[in-house]
Amino acid sequence: MTDVADLIVTGSVIRTSDRARPRAEAFAVRDGRILAVGDRADVEAFRGRRTRLVEVGDAAVYPGFVDVHNHHALAGRTELFELSLAPSLRLDEILDRVREKAQTLPEDAWIVGGAVATTLLPTLANTATRRRLDEAAGGRPVALMEDSRHNRWASTRALELAGITADSIPTSGVTLLDPDGTPTGVLLEAAGIPVQEAYDRSGGLTAEQHAAASRRGIELLNSFGITAFQDAGVSVDILAALAGLDRADELHAWVVSSLLINDEIFGFDPIGAPLLDRGEEFRTPHHRPDFVKIFLDGVPPARTASFLDPYPADPVHGAHFHGETTMTLDELTDWLRAVAARGLGAKVHCTGDGSARLVLDAAERLRADGFTTPVQIAHGQFLAESDIPRLAALDVSADISPFIWYPGVIPQALADVLGERAEHSQPNRALLDAGALVAGGSDWPVSESPNTLEGLQGLVTRADPLGRAAGTLWPEQAISVEEALEVFTINAATAMGLGAETGSLTPGKSADFVILERDAIGGPAEEIVHTEVVSTWFAGRPVHER
Predict the structure, then answer these.
(1) DSSP code of 541?
(2) What SS3 class is residue 65?
């Protein structure tokens, strides 16, 4: 007897991201899984008396979007419990927001949030500006993240609680000092962790708040058609929140978590082997703690990224500074071997071509040992031309974030520190032509929005989809609309180990799909972002409707 479908979806445009059948007229769903994909007449055979029919007409159906790199809980936490700042705000506007927030809080309550624009850091890095922050906060402890989420701006009271003084400077990261020798409050990379730890000692978030942050983050992702994602750096609190949501049947996405090997920015505890030992506690049907996260360098605007060629000379670093990596080749290789032995994959943060080469050298050793563990170069924005073919040869995927490289604030910050080199960022055409697996991620909330349609448009046009900045970035590296859709569906799912579960409308996979008001990639590329999500479906049921 033919299986009877719970749901049949029909429409004039159904894109599957399955190269065996890239377009279809209909598909059938049973028990949350895709039963059949094909012509209307073929799929009609699975219709029964209780089958729900969804006819989308001139709307379009795509596989649920997949985001290979975000920080969903951080975004949810910022919206629900912190001071949310747009990176476009000027200093006076930030101080006004801090002042308004302070008026609602007890005398010594913390003000945490973000994001402050990277381009503002030079303006903030002095004692006089820190004192303006103190005044706005009424003397309260303040810790604001800048837009890369790698650096912080802290008030005097926050520095005091963290034990950061002129005589006690953090040994990790970089603490920017005033000419008088006092900390300015601008803390780069791991220098900000003592401030995070001081905030956590004050109470931090409850387990219920962590769950609410994850739930809200996923609600927002669903609203943009996203049904699977990889969180690029989690704590035990986030792991517990995700597992708890899934056990309560409230996790409306596939989630792959990345367990921190080292921590240059978050201040989470535990990390490394003690965290890896606990990962399996939090495995549930839709939550997979299957990756680790390694920070191998920082970010170029702070000169903490590692490059093969030196940065332009400056008074602090001289003329021969390349940046540094957090690990040597031997240390990175040892960690990758240990991770592979546990059956886990590795997401490695690299924003310079020097750190990317180090990953490829370590992967070469790993593959020679016979390990097939997934390895992702996270960001992959700068790669030496000779290294591009190595990604395919070594089965290393490129986790790219087009949300933060098309013309805008962060590319301008890159240009300020790198000069013309910044114009050759994100060689996506070259990567695809070389056979590399290119997977799309938003890096939200480093990006202001996780809207996959922004990423699709940026990949194709190499221009700012929202028209905030003029020009294009290395337009020769544009890819086609069909390739861009694969980058944010099947490619991303494959890179994070979910290719057999989701990422395409293929029989046997989870029935994860998004209904758009029109065929976003079927018209002018400049109009992709102006397409509304009608509804988002996870495992055959709607989880977002406009």
Answers:
(1) E
(2) strand
534 — phi, psi (to 5°)? -80, -45
- Cα 473 from chain centre: 21
Q: What is the pLDDT of residues 233-291, one digit of tens each?
A: 999 999 999 999 999 999 999 999 999 999 888 889 999 999 999 999 999 999 999 99
Give CA 41 to chain center in angstroms. 41
**119-122 CB contacts, 8 Å cutoff, 24+ apart:** 119/301, 119/409, 119/412, 119/413, 119/416, 120/90, 120/91, 120/146, 121/146, 121/151, 121/153, 121/186, 121/301, 121/302
Q: In the prediction, which pLDDT does 2 show?
A: 67
Distance CA 378, CA 446 (A): 14
Unique residue bearing structure tokens 């046997």? 508
SS (H, E, C) 351-413: CCHHHHHHHHHHHHHHHHCCCCCCEEEEECCCCCHHHHHHHHHCCEEEEECHHHCCCCHHHHH
Which tens digit of pLDDT belongs to each residue from 296-306? 999 998 899 99
CA angle 490–492–496, rounded 5-degree value: 115
- Is a pLDDT exceeding 90 seen at residue 375? yes
Tokens of 526: 């400049």
Distance of alpha carbon 457 from alpha carbon 477, whole angstroms: 13
Strands 396-400 and 438-440: parallel
pLDDT digit string (tens) for 443-458?
999 888 999 999 999 9
Enter the tokens of residue 95: 């101080």
Kindly state the tokens that stand for 415. Answer: 């240009």
Which H/E stretch holds residue 8? strand 7-15
pLDDT at 159 over 80: yes
pLDDT at 273: 96
Longest CA pairwise span in the chain (Å) = 83
| Dist. CA 526–CA 544, nearest whole Å | 26
**Residue 362, CB-side half-sphere exposure with 13 Å CA sphere:** 29
Q: Which residue type is seen at 190? A: A
Per the listing, tokens 């593959």 go with 367
**What does the block give as tokens for 340?**
């592979």
> Could you tell me if 26 and 43 are in contact, meaning their C-beta atoms sit under 8 angstroms apart?
yes
Question: Is it the case that residue 49 has pLDDT exceeding 50?
Answer: yes
Bond into 183 cis (ω within 30): no
How far apart (Å, rounded) are the C-alpha atoms in residues 147 and 447?
8
**Separation of alpha carbons 192 and 324, rounded Å:** 18
Paired sense of beta strands 7-15 and 33-38, if any: unpaired
pLDDT at 118: 85
Strand pairing partners for 14?
Answer: 24, 61
Residues 6+ positions from 313 with CB-CB distance below 8 Å: 319
